[in-house]
Amino acid sequence: MLFALIFCQSLNRLQRGLSAIAELLVTKEYGILIKVSRQSKGYSARKLLEKFPDKDWSCSALDGLLLQIDITGSADTKSGSSRERTVCTRDMQVSVQMATTLSTNCA
User: Fold this and answer.
1) Domain count, the chain
2) Which of 64, 83, 100, 102 is the 20 to 30 Å CA partner of 7?
3) 30 burial class (0-12, 13-18, 19+ CB within 10 angstroms)?
């Protein structure tokens, strides 16, 4: 029962941490470096902040990332979990121009 409670609390923290990862702005190289530092040296969020003072990382976002690394073993987000990519194509530009001209002609 106690294990289930601790596990549920960890999952809740992980979910909050995943949303904080978007704010963290960690490049792939720094993600790998943070993962290795956590797994091999046991660095905490505060130690990482001391090691990289020039980065604009928050302690809570690093805590979320370290929790994700501890649980899943990876610093990467799931594929397909991010916002869908949109591309500005010529067809899209033409359709937007047509829609704006139609709306201005109707008014």
Assistant:
1) 1
2) 83
3) middle
